[in-house]
């Protein structure tokens, strides 16, 4: 059985780590490179950096950030935000990123998933999905959660897998930043229908929430931001709690 992964997520805006609630009301959480180094030292398994306004502002992810992080950490990291074409992904990979995360661009042009997977391998391609419950159904949202689509989340994730996504990063916008726990019902439903790793995102508030999502939804990894950034959960403590609950971690 594969070890479960703990992944701090750093939402980056104007070169700083920020965190909000339900994707709004952002506040500063520190220097992303410094935080990345701290998490690497604490025993995080991977890192995710999302340039959260890159797509919205039609701006490319900061290459300098990627290079700086690559110099500082020795764990895999994923970069997302503003990746719209093959060239964007190629530059990030060459700058030191291990994986790229695509969201809005993949929905607008699903062929991009096929092309990236073919060029770089499926393990390089993470498809991020921001989902929100509307009238009893989960729909994909774009541009940092600003725009609702008519695409049902479950259908889109199956298509992304079929096109070559190596991993799905699923963020529940309803749970994001609330610290009330992950959306384990949705996560389990999705996880039961796909054969690629699923990363839970949105809602972590305490160590028990991580235990719950691994036990109830059997996700491959759990991602969180503010509980790590503000020192509410320390990764060594979290991993010890997971071990005590019979969950295999690195």
Automatic annotation (TrEMBL):
Keywords: Amino-acid biosynthesis, Cytoplasm, Histidine biosynthesis, Lyase. It is found in: Cytoplasm. Its main location: cytoplasm. The keyword Zinc does not apply. Pathway: Amino-acid biosynthesis; L-histidine biosynthesis; L-histidine from 5-phospho-alpha-D-ribose 1-diphosphate: step 5/9. Gene3D superfamilies: Aldolase class I (3.20.20.70). It catalyses: 5-[(5-phospho-1-deoxy-D-ribulos-1-ylimino)methylamino]-1-(5-phospho-beta-D-ribosyl)imidazole-4-carboxamide + L-glutamine = D-erythro-1-(imidazol-4-yl)glycerol 3-phosphate + 5-amino-1-(5-phospho-beta-D-ribosyl)imidazole-4-carboxamide + L-glutamate + H(+). It comes from Sphingobacterium bovistauri. NCBIfam families: hisF (TIGR00735). Pfam families: His_biosynth. Belongs to the HisA/HisF family. Its EC number is 4.3.2.10. The lineage of its organism: Bacteria, Pseudomonadati, Bacteroidota, Sphingobacteriia, Sphingobacteriales. InterPro entries: Aldolase_TIM (IPR013785), His_biosynth (IPR006062), HisF (IPR004651), IGPS_HisA/HisF (IPR050064), RibuloseP-bd_barrel (IPR011060). This is Imidazole glycerol phosphate synthase subunit HisF. HAMAP family: HisF. One of its GO terms (molecular function) is lyase activity. The keyword Cytoplasm applies. The active site is at residues 11, 130. Heterodimer of HisH and HisF.
């Amino acid at each position: 059985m594969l070890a479960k992964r703990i992944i701090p997520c750093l939402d980056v805006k104007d070169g700083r780590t920020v965190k909000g609630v339900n994707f709004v009301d952002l506040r500063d959480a520190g220097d992303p490179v410094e935080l990345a180094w701290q998490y690497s030292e604490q025993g995080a398994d991977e890192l995710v950096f999302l340039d959260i306004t890159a797509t919205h502002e039609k701006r490319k992810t900061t290459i300098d950030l990627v290079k700086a992080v690559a110099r500082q950490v020795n764990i895999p990291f994923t970069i997302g935000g503003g990746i719209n074409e093959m060239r964007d992904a190629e530059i990030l990979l060459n700058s030191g990123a291990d994986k790229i995360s695509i969201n809005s661009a993949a929905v607008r042009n699903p062929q991009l998933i096929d092309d990236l997977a073919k060029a770089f391998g499926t393990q390089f391609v993470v498809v991020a999905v921001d989902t929100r419950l509307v009238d009893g159904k989960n729909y994909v949202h774009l541009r940092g959660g600003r725009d609702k689509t008519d695409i049902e989340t479950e259908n889109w994730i199956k298509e992304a897998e079929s096109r070559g996504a190596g991993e799905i990063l699923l963020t529940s916008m309803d749970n994001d930043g609330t610290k009330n726990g992950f959306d384990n019902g949705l996560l389990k439903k999705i996880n039961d229908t796909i054969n690629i790793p699923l990363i839970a995102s949105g809602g972590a508030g305490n160590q028990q929430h991580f235990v719950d999502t691994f036990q109830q939804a059997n996700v491959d990894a759990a991602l969180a931001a503010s509980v790590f950034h503000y020192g509410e959960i320390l990764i060594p403590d979290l991993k010890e709690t997971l071990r005590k609950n019979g969950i295999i971690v690195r």
